Amino acid sequence: MKKSSNVIWHQASVSQQDREKLNGHRGVTLWFTGLSGSGKSTLAHAVEKRLYEMKVRTYVLDGDNVRHGLCGDLGFSNVARRENIRRIGEVSKLFVDAGMIVLTAFISPFRSDRQQVRKLLDNRFIEIYCECPLNICESRDVKGLYKRARAGEVRDFTGISSPYEVPEAAEIIVNTDSLNLHESTQKIVRYLADQKIITSST
Length: 202
Hints:
Layout: H1 16-23, E1 28-33, H2 40-53, E2 58-62, H3 63-66, H4 78-97, E3 101-105, H5 111-121, E4 125-131, H6 134-139, H7 145-150, E5 172-175, H8 181-194
Parallel strand pairs: 1-3, 1-4, 2-3, 4-5
């Protein structure tokens, strides 16, 4: 994307490290990816609730919610999906600079797009793959999207008429078909503590 030559990044007088010290934890992005119905949003919100109880400053960027405003002008073509993820990556970077833990729940089907966000955030990016077989995701079809996609009513639907590229080196893999919500949540929170992103006393 072409950037204006007249825009210069303003260095704030309060640094990321200052904000993290005040917050009592590091700022990172937890990037939940997986098929529709794999439990991304449910798990992201459960993790946020647990972190909130631990006094951690968080915010969830949910796929559907973001498309009501920031990405409301985008469709679901491959080009639009890439732009959607690019915007979320940039917003996530701002949250991380604020010293917060931002949780994003997006199918984000393409490895190259997720890799671009990883490059943008460097070691502040934690990819969480919600692994779940297609047939299980389809059986959870709360919104009826899989049924419509099978009927040809929804174009470019990930897992049916558009590909999903499985992460090759996700920091965390959560088998959402075999682990319950509490177990899945605890796995992620333990990882954050082990990596000293949060502390057990937070």
